[in-house]
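Before a colleague's protein record goes any further, I have to sign it off. My question to you is simply how this chain folds and whether the tokens agree. I do not need a full report, just your reasoning and any doubts. This is what I was given:
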Amino acid sequence: MSIFKRNRIRQDERDAAIDTRHQRRLRLLLIDEDMTARAVIARRLSHLNYDVMLAEHGFAALNLLVTRPVDIILIDMGITMLPPITTMQKIRASNLAGTACFVMIAGRLDSQSVIGALDAGADDHVVKPFDFDILDARLRHLCQRAEQMGTLTRHNAELDARIARRAVELGETRDALREMQLDRARLVSSIQALHDEVERLQAARV
């Protein structure tokens, strides 16, 4: 029984490793003034299949995002050079975030700050110290939901475009039908005029 359990555990570990390898490697930007915290979080997330960029404040983050889009932006609520909510708002206003999810890193006593961040548009928050496996699951769930919303938005846009094209085609068809009706009316009028002229000529001969 113990051998079976060990083999089962090893198989589960192999399956988990395969699942991790097949997961899309997400791009993440971490904004934190604490150099040690940046290094620790970056190392752990890199092992969980993330490409991590680091910024010590919001201005550095904006410079990085100009050339390197990301899926997730993690912002520590303790940054001071550019406050966290202002950092998020400036990134959004710059149109550099794309569909990236904003997640705030907060302390246990930052509940009011977190509420303000969520009200300002943050997608989620995590509380320090956090479990990296749970953080990974939450981040991937957020990205999956964002991708689904993006897909839905694209489908809606494509549907709107098809409807608009169809409306144009219907309008063109109506115009063509109206022109055909006018041509028919003109043709009927011409035939009637010709018929009247023939009858007039026949009457004149008599």
Remarks:
- The chain has six helices and five strands.
- The CA atoms of residues 5 and 11 lie 10 Å apart.
- The first strand starts at residue 26 and ends at 31.
